[in-house]
Amino acid sequence: MIRIVIAEDEDIIRSGLLYTIDWLSMNAVVVASAATGSEGLEKIKSLQPDIVIADIKMPGMSGLDMIEAAQKAKIDFIPIVLTSYSDFNYAKSAIALRVFDYLLKPVDEAKIKEVVLRAQEQLAKNRIAQKAERAESAGASPSPFLPPMVSDNPYIAACLSAIEQNYAEHPNIETLARTLKVSASYLSRLFKKHTSMTFLDFLNTYRIQKAVSLLADQKYRVYEVAAMTGFSSYKRFYEVFKSYAGFPPTELAKQDGKQKS
């Protein structure tokens, strides 16, 4: 699974990227988000993501400064820049930093998917090249195969499948562990290691992502969306939604032109 860090100082845009984009369909997970360049740099250093999506210009440390600092720290990732700017000086700086692509605000999900999938292809090529270099250095014949991706792990694949297919039916790590014939503590540690999130955090993030899509359709009331996404009560849904998205579900309903609470 591809690991992504997002750095964006605008709360609404950052929340939109986190909760309205179907990252799982791209075999990707957002392992962290940051509101400043300096915070983003710390996340990159600690989590070593595959892809970094950063606003080109943020207060204090800009997205480009953050990318440059991370590259100087010898962290290998693919940088993608968010921008509403056409400033040529920024463009020149981005070229020098080998930025993979630009995403113009307001961000379009289809464009994000296209860019992220191309970035994954580039990651695969990079890994093949690195594996070949290591094999040649060791005097062996280069192998055309990639090392196993995280999602190839059968335990992680089972967890992701359970979340994707049964997110409204309260999947939990204990039941999955019994099905997979491993201990719950082992499966929990393995999931956290591969996704940088607990199973519950990942599940709730996925549920809120689905809730945002359902509310945006304007076909359901907020309490109906709460039930559809697996929450036992409207109150619990409201609390979790606000905690993860940064704003209440009723606000999203208002923004979409209808209050359906």
Automatic annotation (TrEMBL):
GO molecular function: DNA-binding transcription factor activity; sequence-specific DNA binding
Lineage of source species: Bacteria, Pseudomonadati, Spirochaetota, Spirochaetia, Spirochaetales
Lineage: superkingdom: Bacteria
Domain HTH araC/xylS-type: 157-255
UniProt cross-references to Pfam families, sorted A to Z: HTH_18, Response_reg
Keywords carried by this UniProt record: Cytoplasm, DNA-binding, Phosphoprotein, Transcription, Transcription regulation, Two-component regulatory system
Protein name stated in the entry: Response regulator
PANTHER family recorded: HISTIDINE KINASE-RELATED, TRANSCRIPTIONAL REGULATORY PROTEIN HPTR
The keyword Cytoplasm is annotated on this UniProt entry: yes
Regions annotated as coiled coil: none
